[in-house]
Amino acid sequence: MDIIKLPNGLKEGFTHGGLFHADDVFATALLKILSPEIKITRGFSVPTDYEGIVYDIGGGCFDHHQKGRRIRENRIPYAAFGLLWEKFGECLLCGEDAERFDKEFVQQIDWSDNTGEPNMLAATIADRNLTWQDEPSLAEEAFDKAVEYAKEILEYRFH
Predict the structure, then answer these.
(1) Dmax (CA) of the chain
(2) How far apart are CA 66 and CA 52, in angstroms?
(3) How far apart are alpha carbons 34 and 10 in whole angstroms?
(4) Going by C-beta distance under 8 Å and a sequence separation of 6 or more, which residues neighbour residue 131?
(5) Residue 78: which of 118, 107, 57 has the closest Cα?
(6) pTM of the full predicted structure?
(7) What residues does 13 pair with on adjacent strands?
(8) What's the CA angle centered on 19, arms 131 and 140, to 5 degrees?
């Protein structure tokens, strides 16, 4: 796994643009909890020499859209949320609590993202995407609102 600076050092993040899913939304919410001042950019290709944390795009250690993607021992593939939780989860919950949260919450999001298996929470996040009737300029606002919703869920679970 690549060496990543401590969460306090996270200043910028980059994830994919377009439709958002529960894994990139919860991954973003997790990063915002770890580093409240982080600036997240969404796009379709990672800028050359980008120095922030890249997830769910770009082929790095937090992107599960590549050949040889990682799969847990229980056969649940990692998605971006799970990969970030694996790296930073113990910054928020200790040992057994972090493992239990992974098993009961994170893995459910990862499973749904990787398989398309229905998941009510993932569907609730997906419902926040724009429809064909919405103004395209509202896409980032919709993403930000979904992230705030996910962040509220996570913060409630962590306390």
Answers:
(1) 46
(2) 20
(3) 8
(4) none
(5) 107
(6) 0.91
(7) 40, 53
(8) 85
Token match 């996910």: residue? 150
Residues ≥6 apart with Cβ < 8 Å to 92: 33, 34, 98, 158
CA 107 to chain centre: 12
CA 66, 72, 77, 79 torsion-angle sign = negative
- 128 burial level (CB within 10 Å; 0-12, 13-18, 19+): middle
Tokens representing 33 are 């909890």
How many helices (H) does the chain have, and how many strands (E)?
6, 3
Q: What is the pLDDT along the chain (159 residues), one digit of tens a residue?
A: 344 445 667 799 999 999 999 999 999 999 999 999 999 999 999 999 898 999 998 887 887 767 777 899 999 999 999 999 999 999 999 989 999 999 999 999 999 999 999 999 999 999 999 988 889 889 999 999 999 999 999 999 998
Phi then psi dihedrals of residue 40, to 5 deg: -100, 130
Q: Burial level of 4, CB count in 10 A (0-12/13-18/19+)?
A: middle
Q: Strands 12-16, 39-43: parallel, antiparallel or unpaired by DSSP?
A: parallel
